[in-house]
Specification:
Blueprint (H helix, E strand, L loop, with lengths): L1 E5 L2 E5 L75 E10 L6 H17 L4 E4 L10 H9 L7 E6 L3 H6 L40 H17 L4 E7 L6 H9 L4 E2 L9 H9 L8 H6 L7 E2 L8 E2 L12 H14 L8 E8 L6 E5 L8 E6 L3 H13 L1 H4 L2 E3 L2 H8 L2
Parallel strand pairs: 3-4, 3-10, 3-13, 4-5, 5-6, 6-7, 7-9
Antiparallel strand pairs: 1-2, 8-9, 11-12
Length: about 425
């Protein structure tokens, strides 16, 4: 018995008879039995981060030449894999903006039902979570579990910031007393509502704060979310989509690499008027009004001096649209890829607010926690669910869609 070593494998081999000496040449002698062929283990290949994104080299191509990227027309220079097949498709991201109002079972139950549908059909989502659920002495474990009811494996958790008083205090930032719901009678100095934990500041624009203060707020927000057990990504969305250059630079200084706050003016018309009446300078939405359209695609904000990736919010949050409007946005996107080449894509975003999934409840400010001010029927989640179910029922539409998180989308479009 002897052994051979082959690529790390030990192979035992019984020695065969040696050829007998004689005048006959070798071809007339019986050949020895061939050695058994070793069975090599199959190599273990790395799995891609998303089942819909192929790990292969991107095709180099210029993006957004000689004009501001948010104003450019849709482009198709991104190489993707749709369910393992190279084909043109629409890349869709879904998001939920957890604003910090409350976590009532009526809304959370509807989101949990939606999560079950998403898990059944392989649809991930990005949850932009405001840390004010954990900044004002609440039961952290209870609130975190309520939020997790709306999540499935593969979902992303990202930072969402409204100017809640308790969050600003924890970040070491002095709150600026200016609230868009206050009204001109009291010069916008008194908020019109609170949250379920007697906190105020949902309607306090974070454009009030300096670059360093924004960095402090985001760092504290990340710490609160991580303390609640969430794995926090490097994505960010500001409350009410407000932004200016200093705010976005503070976001970047806090370690975020992408922003998802950009909205077209048509989606924010009421807020535009309120911010104008408050005489805020710079105007919290002017940046987007000049640079974002309903058809804007993901891009880099370098032209305005900020090293951030921007994934536009589009005119597609269910709170500000109808089911027919949401479906119309998809028809636009499908029309864009009709003549696209293989392995090319276009981006669409849809979302909703958990606090308005079924019913919005506002609470009295400067009153004991939980003092109800108003209950307002909303049912915004049903619009998005209805559109998704319509697309799922149509094999022709569903087969042209790939769903990814915001974090994965940035790797497709602007890595």
């Amino acid at each position: 018995m002897c052994t051979f070593f082959y690529d790390g494998l030990v192979i035992p081999v019984e020695p065969g008879p040696l050829p007998s000496p004689g005048p006959k040449p070798w071809p007339f002698e019986p050949r020895p039995e061939p050695l058994p062929k070793p069975i090599l283990p199959k190599p273990i290949l790395p799995k891609p981060k998303s089942p819909f994104i192929r790990l292969r080299p991107r095709r180099p191509a210029p993006m957004f030449p000689d004009r501001f990227p948010g104003k450019s027309t849709p482009i198709y220079d991104v190489r993707v894999g749709h369910k393992g097949k190279p084909r043109a498709c629409v890349t869709v991201t879904l998001s939920a903006d957890w604003d910090g109002h409350d976590l009532r079972d009526e809304n959370v139950g509807a989101i949990e039902h939606f999560a079950a549908w998403r898990q059944q059909h392989g649809v991930p989502m990005t949850h932009f979570v405001c840390p004010s659920y954990f900044s004002n002495g609440q039961n952290v474990a209870l609130n975190a579990n309520q939020i997790r009811r709306g999540m499935i494996p593969g979902d992303e958790v990202a930072i969402h910031v409204h100017g809640w008083r308790s969050l600003l205090q924890q970040a070491g930032v002095l709150q600026v007393a200016s609230f868009w719901s206050g009204g001109p009678v009291n010069n916008y100095q008194t908020p019109a509502y609170a949250n379920a934990w007697a906190d105020i500041g949902h309607d306090n624009p974070i454009t009030h704060y300096t670059r360093q203060e924004i960095t402090q707020i985001i760092n504290r927000s990340r710490a609160l979310l991580q303390g609640a057990g969430f794995n926090v990504s490097s994505s960010f969305r500001s409350g009410a989509w407000v932004a200016h250059r200093e705010l976005l630079r503070g976001v970047r200084n806090a370690g975020c690499i992408l922003d998802a706050s950009g909205v077209p003016p048509a989606m924010t018309e009421p807020l535009n008027g309120l911010f104008t009446a408050m005489a805020l300078n710079p105007h919290p939405l002017a940046l987007w009004a000049n640079n974002i359209t309903p058809n804007s695609q993901p891009h880099v904000l370098n032209p305005i001096g900020v090293n951030l990736r921007e994934l536009p919010c589009h005119y597609s949050l269910a709170d500000y649209n109808t089911q027919q409007g949401i479906e119309g946005r998809m028809q636009w996107a499908l029309g864009q890829i009709q003549h696209a080449q293989l392995d090319q894509t276009v981006y669409l975003h849809f979302g909703f607010h958990p606090e308005t999934a079924v019913t919005l409840r506002l609470y009295q400010p400067n009153q004991p926690a939980g003092t109800v001010l108003a209950n307002i029927p909303m049912n915004h989640l049903a619009k998005l669910e209805g559109a998704l179910q319509t697309w799922r029922a149509s094999g022709a539409i569903w087969g042209q869609l790939q769903f990814v998180t915001v974090e994965d989308a940035v790797q497709i479009f602007v890595p």
